[in-house]
Amino acid sequence: MAITVIVGAQYGDEGKGKMSDYLAKDADFVARFQGGDNAGHTVLNQYGVFKMHLVPCGVFTPGVINFIGTGTAVNPDVLIEELDTLNDVGIDTSELYLSERAQLVLPYHVQLDEQMEARSSGIGTTKRGIGQAYAFKLLRKNPRAGDLRDIDEFERILGEANDIGIPGIDFAIPRSTLERWAERLVPILREPLSLVHGQIAAGKNLLFEGQLGVMKDIDQGIYPFVTSSHTTASYAAVSAGFPARLITDVIGVAKAFESAVGKGHFPTEMGEDEAAPLRGTGENPDDEYGARTGRSRRLGWLDMEVLRFAHKINGFDALALTKLDKLDALAEIKVCTHYASGTSEPVYRAFPGWLSDTTKCKTFDALPTEAQAYVRFIEAELNVPVRWIGNGPVRDDVIAR
Fold first, then answer.
1. Is CATH 3.30.450.20 what the domain over 255-400 is classified as, yes or no?
2. Exposed site from 56, 97, 263, 285, fewest CB < 10 Å?
3. Residues classed as catalytic
């Protein structure tokens, strides 16, 4: 039995979806444990190119149970659309389940999000209503997935939400919509504790798939420019309801450089001339554009202070370093080794680039010596092994060490 948690070691968009898809081959159970459809996991495999927003990336591996867990925020329409997309290309979703305790993202949450982002205080959210759903959760006035079993009860909860009295927000949802959601989602509802603990008791291998990165964690990240849930490894145990000591492996996923979306502090951010060769045009699935919004990402050099912080918070057993191939054409690669005393001003060390194609490399020894040195530097600085290196967008474009 193993419980592995995959988390982002930077600001998000590190390649967690690719690694979850890749590592699902060794799993019996794959769960999304937090977040909503405000971000996407891009997966490229034999079935095609997918932007996964709610469904765990283990869905592409036959025989794996996939679970959308209690800590998530689920827009019913988005989930139904995602299921239809998978089914239309022949992906079996018969063992995909939804926690009856998962929070629902409803139309009025989206309206509220749009209103807030329209004001000058907007923090650059995707306006998908995720933060508002979590806010109503904390007010104890939000329907959960299990409430779809009883439409009358669901409407009663909507009435309680309406009692908050927010001008200009329509809390009503047509009963026909609720019945449509119930028809599709009630059959996949499961009581989460018995499902998760049943897997643990049976000695199964569980993989928990996080969304966004440590720097966007609601408590530990660059507040207020953060997401509305906990992106750290320990929350996999909290939201799934098992002791954290049962986690056997924490895998941090980091890009060979950095990216961020939205507003907020980003010390190693590049100028546009530096960023352009890494960003791409948006035509390729691994170009630096958001999987949900399509907007271009802010790009920066690798920041070892961020990785040290991420390791301190999560306790990595191993790293997956993705998109190494994106550095192939750079003559010089900069890394922030630390910040100037008393500031967050990055101090850089320059590494020579390798100026050669790494996408055909299948082993670590096949990489250019400069690329090997780059990886070994990261390992030495963190005292964490880099066990996987991504050198292309497709599932199998991974060097395992």
1. no
2. 263
3. 13, 41
